[in-house]
Amino acid sequence: MNLDPGPAPEGRKLSVAGREFHLIEMGEGAPLFLLHGGGPGCTAWSDFGVVARMFARNRRCIMPDLLQYGRSDKQVIQGPMWTYHAGMMVGLMDALGVERADFVCNSWGGTIALCLAAHYPDRVRSLVITGSMPVFYGPLAPLPEEGRRGRNARDVYYGGEGPTLEKMRALMARLEWHDASRIPETTVRMRYEQSLDEGEMALAARTDGPRGDWQDLTNELAKVACPTLFCWGLQDAFLTPDYPMMLTRMVQRGQLHILDAASHHLQEERPVHYHQIVQSFLDQPEDAR
């Protein structure tokens, strides 16, 4: 299987409440939002470019760069961060004429989608959540680096001599992929070049919380009523499988699939298997899931 996503399509921009989203769309059918992770240089295409082509065979795949990432708006966010992102995502749905959709998400994007499903339940048909951290505790032990592993990795990446291609490759190998030998050089370079974006560099340099006020979503998870699949890498470097098992009990209709030989970005590392599991989940009638 070729894991190289290739060059990103041009996409387009949409204005929502005075902020600009960049998004790529592929395919036709029921709307499916693909929300990417929060690592340095992450975009919708870097995280979902390969598997999106598979989903696009029978779905309308909508891949936005989240605010403060990719070619979307880089302004500072104030107030509760996940609540803000969820509201802006609903605004994007309105701008696209999408009343209700499925969401397939990695890490940062998954926490946004969980918050969205809690506050806007009529807008979400189902969720697939991979590697997200909506609460700050685990059932067996404290979270690695007190749940700050991603933020610490970002500080290391942008610190010292600043971003380099070698530091990006090392970050992806240590935290995002189980088998570092399979990481496409195209993806490493794509992430590195995006991480040099002037807006992303400026956000990384700030110390005043430019991403908004951090939120624990414990209370919100109990409100998530849609079918929710937590799809996790057995070797996830951030959160071991006991954590998503806990999450399945916190939402109303949760289930869990553990995928071996995969870490935090299993949709990139194991795209065929990931697509098969997620597509099967999406294709089931809601009352059968």
Automatic annotation (TrEMBL):
Q: What are its GO cellular component terms?
A: membrane
Q: Where is the AB hydrolase-1 domain?
A: 31-271
Keywords from the named record: Hydrolase
The record's annotation in InterPro entries points to: AB_hydrolase_1 (IPR000073), AB_hydrolase_fold (IPR029058), AB_hydrolase_sf (IPR050266), Epox_hydrolase-like (IPR000639)
Does the keyword section mention Repeat?
Answer: no
The record's annotation in Gene3D superfamilies points to: alpha/beta hydrolase (3.40.50.1820)
Q: Where is the signal peptide?
A: none
Question: Which molecular-function annotations from GO does this UniProt entry contain?
Answer: hydrolase activity
Protein name according to UniProt: Hydrolase
Species name: Tardibacter chloracetimidivorans
